[in-house]
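We store chain and fold; example below:
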Amino acid sequence: MRITVGLVGCGRWGSNHLRTLKALKSSGRITRVVVCDIDPETLSAVDADATYASLSRMLEMENIDALAIVTPPDTHLALAREGLQHGLPLFVEKPLALHHDDAVDFLTSLPQNNVLIVGYILRHHHGVNRLFSSPVQEAVGELVSVHYQRQTVRDRPHDAEPISTLGVHGLDLIAWLLNQPLMFGKTVSKTVSADTASLEMVFPTGQRGAFEVAWSAPEERRLLHVEGDLGCASLDFGTGTIELTSKTGTAATVHSTGNDALLEEWTHFLDHLDVEGQHALPSVERLLDQSEWIHTYGGPDSV
């Protein structure tokens, strides 16, 4: 089957998508990779099967089977709607929208036969998925808390905010792993600065979720700690190591290996191009819940 993928945006993260797409082309999974970017200098340096200065021109000239949007967040929905006009499956980087009303309008009008993947890449990390394996689940038991930490030495991008840009990955993991709507949670502590944010929430079930995120940190730090009624597990995203500790003090180490998370995310997208009905990951309900939470509680003064 011949598959042409269109990539919109080839900045820092878009370049990572392009490398992944070229690897998928080399393996025979896709046939062509075409790219558009509004920056002539960026576009001139792109190695792809074809390049375009606008999405409309690319859609006019190419028979595209799937569209990825990796552009500044304030452009996501306009470009996504243009893709939907052509009936294309969409891979949109997070956040889907900057404003809750826009997200609601887009998600509630999503066609019933459409595929929408929003870029919550940690759902595809082999270490996170290893947490669902029998040995880990048997050691941890029913989850009672999720704690996500993400610190990066990189400077904060222009107009980025710590909760909606970095903390949002923690929010997604909390809601997904605890199987709780974020809007059901009550924030019990929260601090926000220009470069950092920390938050803890508790749900009516007694389960707890927390995250700590920061730019301009002294070192890279990517950790996920989950606690259950039998024990706990700590995942280091960089090494894939999972440290297990039971409540009786027994300790064990699980080494998780697998494909790059972005490659796994693309594989999931490609596997669902021909799915019947609507397929969204995260689900439309999760995306709406997250958007509402950020709108209601994501500001520095909201609790």
About this structure: The chain has two domains: 4-122+264-282, 123-258. The first strand starts at residue 4 and ends at 8. The CA atoms of residues 157 and 215 lie 9 Å apart.
